[in-house]
């Protein structure tokens, strides 16, 4: 990012449009403190940089890398309306002033823009906070410097938002522990974790490792930046907004305190972000573990455990990262949780909606993209027969789309004749007066499995057989 120091164009007004304030309200990582396992005499190669972290963050190479990452991630603009495509021009004109403000402690982040996305439970939403693109670059630059420092301190059984680790690794570790006999689970749910993080506790944990007060202050400003909801500004005295590059790292830094406590107590556990499972050998032990760990979470970390969703259960009854477990020939294996199946079918219904106005080419592309992504995520599961049934249902919906497109009798004659069927079949089908869903059954002999594949549609079962790991 070759940048000039031309400051002829000032930054867009902070919080533009935030004329009202409500004072009553309040998708990698950063550096952290040494654990109890890292002593003064066990210094890492990053310790010497801890007093000058801000200079590391503001280095040209680090900022260039941060800009490229933000541009690669794309995403919507924040409260100032600036889009990713406008970012380079703005930075070239204003980088000098921005860096000076950050160094002098005068930089003030914009509030985040509130976005709500639906959850699996109907009627419930997850709240995201979208920072401005400029703030995303700065957050990304902070995360790039702090991440290697904290990465050395994170527990091996923490898998979320970490390099070269993912959901599949967490699932395999759960499977391994279950096969060793840890089949009673404390299924822990932290109530609105990202919205409940205590700022003072997080700053305390950060300060154990990050000795550059300017970096701590800048991170604290991001936590206190506020949120814009329907044009009204709300303070954020607690919580870390989901949606920014710093949020995943800060969540891991906070919950690493829980990891250390669980390890100190000798518990087996797997954590992916705020989704934590503690695995025990007996139901009694699991109940005792739950009873003893809740006071630590609420009394020491100042987080809230959701009592309704936190429970002790047999491993085959829990949902973890969309998967479920089942026992086969003495070993635990994966299957897709029924809620994940419902969610998948709901999405496929949206993609095969007959009134969405998409072209056939666009619909094929969207369906194939979803099938590829979904199947790659659930490839650990045993689901061959499940996917065959869903494929049959999906093909019927695809046939219904084409039947609706061939709504005129003469169009049906022309299109059905292309599939080399007897003329009496063409005549019977073209003059069918049944509803679209019932009539779609008639197209089985026209839009066959092969014909639909020739149109370009992927099948769930076919792609699964290509990539499954079982």
Tags for this entry?
470 residues; 11 strands; four-stranded antiparallel β-sheet; disordered N terminus; alpha+beta; five-stranded mixed β-sheet
Write a short abstract of this structure:
The protein is of the alpha+beta class and 470 residues long.
Tell me about this structure:
There is one protein chain. The chain starts with 19 loop residues before the first strand and ends with a helix. It has a five-stranded mixed β-sheet with strand order 1-6-5-2-3, with no helix packed on it. Strands 7-8-4-9 form a four-stranded antiparallel β-sheet, sandwiched between helices. The protein has helices spanning 53-57, 60-73, 87-103, 133-151, 167-179, 193-196, 199-207, 213-223, 247-264, 283-299, 338-351, 360-377, 384-405, 409-417, 423-430, 436-439, 449-455, 460-467; strands at 20-22, 112-118, 125-130, 184-189, 227-229, 232-234, 268-272, 275-280, 311-314, 323-328, 331-336. Helix 7 packs across helix 9. The chain is globular and about 85 Å long. By secondary structure, the chain is of the alpha+beta class. It is built from 18 helices and eleven strands. Strand 2 and strand 3 (125-130) form a beta hairpin.
